[in-house]
Every structure is written in C-alpha cells, then in structure tokens.
Design brief:
Distance between the termini: 32 Å
Number of domains: 1
Shape: globular
Radius of gyration: 15 Å
Structural class: alpha+beta
CATH class: Alpha Beta
CATH architecture: Roll
CATH topology: Nuclear Transport Factor 2, Chain: A
Number of helices: 3
Number of strands: 6
Order of helices and strands: HHEEHEEEE
Helix content: 25-40%
Length: 133
C-alpha cells in the first residue's frame, strides 16, 4: 500500500464520525443502534471485559441485557488509522472519574454498501499505569 493511501483525510473523518455516533449510542444505551454498527455476519466478533460474542446476533442478545455505559465515561487518545478507502482501525482509552483503571477499546471498521461497520471489537481494562497521561 502506498503511503498516500494511509490516513486519507476524508476517510479518517468518516470513520471518526461513525465511531463518535457509536459512542453516543453506548451512553444512551440504545441496544438496537449499537448493534446496527456491527457487521451483520456470523463472523462479527466482540470481546468484552467479561463476555464474548461471535456474531451480530449474539452481540444483539448481549447488548439487549447490558446496562448502558455510564454517562461520565471519558474517552481519550482516539486513534483512527485508515488503510485505503474501506478499512480502518480505531483505538482509544476510556476512564471513569472515580476509578484509576484504564479501559482500552480497539475496533476494526470496514466500509460496506450500507456504511461503515465494526467487524471486530475488543474491550479491556487494566489498572492505573504510573506516569500514563
């Protein structure tokens, strides 16, 4: 891949917009909207903090029972890396005001005819790291 195909500005803006909309749906707890951001395929994958879903159908079932993400969650260090026009990764950190733990979220986004969809997602939490910004 040519360097000019990495992080094309318009693609980064599109993916960041989709990521921000997904985050807003998480805070609202809109299970249907959250699920719609995932690829509608049995190969869609989500590794959560204490859960695993293998397919959009499993993600939908899990999300219908899951509580919304707390509204005081702070997302930071959002990094979008686009590869060409149709594939990107999004990685970020998140925290809660009264918790020193660091949450990490990684997603692979692919452009389909219906729009950008998450094909794979991973969420994890680690303890505080000394000197981490």
């Amino acid at each position: 891949m040519e360097p000019s195909e990495i992080n094309k500005a318009d693609v980064v803006v599109e993916v960041r917009g989709s990521f921000d909309a997904y985050e807003a749906a998480l805070v609202r707890g809109d299970a249907d909207e959250i699920t719609a951001f995932f690829w509608d395929d049995d190969r869609a994958l989500r590794f959560g903090i204490e859960d695993i879903q293998h397919s959009r159908a499993e993600i939908a079932l899990w999300r219908a029972e899951a509580p919304p993400v707390p509204a005081d969650r702070v997302v930071s260090h959002v990094e979008v890396t686009a590869f060409g026009d149709d594939v990107a990764t999004v990685n970020c950190e998140f925290r809660y005001p009264d918790d020193q733990s660091i949450g990490r979220q990684s997603q692979t986004w692919v452009r389909f005819p219906e729009g950008w969809r998450i094909t794979s997602a991973h969420v994890s939490v680690i303890g505080a790291i000394d000197g981490h910004r």
